[in-house]
Amino acid sequence: MKSNASAGFKSKPVPDQRQQAQIKKPEEVKEKTEEENFKEMEEEVHRLLEESARCKVEKNLTEALTKAKEAASKEKKIR
Description:
The protein is mostly helical.
């Protein structure tokens, strides 16, 4: 057994910091409330509308229409 220890092998592996960061503890996983979900959806609709307006100003009308339609469908989901 001494030869294994001198080669750097250990009886119990010690996880490094990257592995510990990847492992989430059960109490850290928190489900979002319904209100938080609606707020995130509203922010996404707002972002899509801003992108649509930006595309229109840049004369990219096809992309502007696509983003506006996507925003409208997501707003319907909120209702």
